[in-house]
Amino acid sequence: MATTAVAAYQPKPSKGFDDVIIIGGGLAGLFCALKLAPRAVTVLAAAPIGRGASSAWAQAGIAAAVGPGDTVDKHVTDTIIAGDGIVDEDIIRMMATEASARIHDLLEFGVPFDRDLAGKLSVSREAAHSESRIVRVKGDMAGRAIMEALVASVRKTPSIRVLEGYVAEELITEDGRVTGVVARDQAGSGEDLHRLTASHVVMATGGVGHLFEVTTNPTEARGGGIGMAARAGARLADMEFVQFHPTAINVGKDPAPLATEALRGHGATLHNSAGERFMLGLHKDAELAPRDVVARGIFAEVKAGRGAFLDCRTAVHDFANEFPTVFGYCRDAGIDPAREMIPVVPAAHYFMGGIWTDADGRSSLPGFWACGECTSTGAHGANRLASNSLLEAVVFSARIALRLGTEMSGVAPANWQEGSVSSASHLAENDHPNMVALRKTMSANLGVLRDGDGMREALRTILELARNSHSTRFDNVITTAKLIAVSALNRLESRGGHFRTDFPEESPDWKRRTLLTLEQANAIVPDLLETD
């Protein structure tokens, strides 16, 4: 591969004060930047902020025990049950306790959460929640509304400098400490690389859904930030646990549009082509069972050729107004959900694994922090409880900002010489043939159902693709895929989002989280590839 010149470029805050680089323009990154104000912050966003972020596509809302009769203890209990035995109770209790304060932060930033006639926050119920606790916007528009409010706030905050179209490729380390980022401009297509340095770097790059052929995630969600951190030596956790949303709308789109779980919370039911309500025989909570259970139920029907369909015809009375986002997806696909059932299929949706952090968002590398879906905090265990994702993003990004406030000198706002925003067009990224091959093997062998032979086949393919890597960015992506495969092969049981047909039961020996580095993963690859 030809060597690319590294341009000498460093955004400079007011002299004498530390600055922070945040990689990622989604909910976690922008919320962290706003909570750090008036300290100097540079946000690197691959796409214009508010676009290319999974947060903007989130439909249901944020889980918070703010409704009548609900408590933090109930929220914690529901999360632990959904997480299938490996949730860090201290972490989820902290998150649930801080949920109300973060909701009020979002209200102050202008998020128009739904309210009842008395002016109190409206809450809805989702699968595996024992109470109605989902704070939402117009039924299914929470993600979009939250991101619009945060983007507007960021653009009005002089201490935040946004570099749009800058794609991070490497972390800069000096004497074991992360001191900056090497990034490429023009949405990653620029010829020159830029070296940006800072006293602290925060990773907020999102998840891994686009590693799979069927996903609800945007193209940018390829796990590149996680792989970048791993290649710099950061500790990873729970890399085997991928959550597949049960009800992506099965109309052949990439990404697949999502039929929010709130529809099932409203009473929508699942049926196969024969009209059978198949979830009744699989779990006591039927359609409201944990996501991994519902995803496997739907996957079995689709694989058997019977298909799966979401029936909202009697559960939702005014679809266009109650769930406008899903209604729009259906209308675009020629489906009238008031009269027809919606075809659905499981799709890669959320990653429980990622960069290990402590309760303050601190990684194993000095100077390096992480928040949002690129992390594994222990809050989700083996299977995320619905609507805990946006909550985790705002809680941990706020905690990083609070901790950095005690570690950094000075409080004065930055004096950005080149203005607060450097824009670049959002260039659609077509999949390289290597990426197409990777997505194919990930879906075939590391999807809803897994087995040892298939995962070994996937790992061999991943190693071959790594040897033929075409760019540093793909090096990061393929590193994440390798860590998922290694961790999945290494866990000899089924738990939550990790289901092995050759080890279909849970094992008490594996009632624990998985922690590893890239170096440790590479060391066990030969043993994992051995067959009897």
Name a few traits of the molecule.
532 residues; globular; 14 helices
Sketch the major β-sheet. Answer: 6 strands, parallel
Rg (CA only): 22 Å
Total number of strands: 21
Kindly report the average pLDDT value: 90
Can you tell me the overall shape? globular
SS-derived structural category: alpha/beta
Low-confidence stretches at least 5 residues in length (pLDDT < 50)? 1-17, 417-428
Helix content: 25-40%
Beta-strand content estimate: 15-25%
Number of helices: 14
Strand order of the largest sheet: 18-11-2-3-7-20
Termini, distance in Å? 38 Å
Give a written overview of the molecule.
It is built from 14 helices and 21 strands. It is an alpha/beta fold and 532 residues long. The strands form five sheets. Strands 18-11-2-3-7-20 form a six-stranded parallel sheet, with helices on one face. It has a four-stranded mixed sheet with strand order 1-10-9-8. β9 (177-184) and β10 form a beta hairpin. The two termini are 38 Å apart. Residues 1-17 and 417-428 have low confidence and may be disordered.
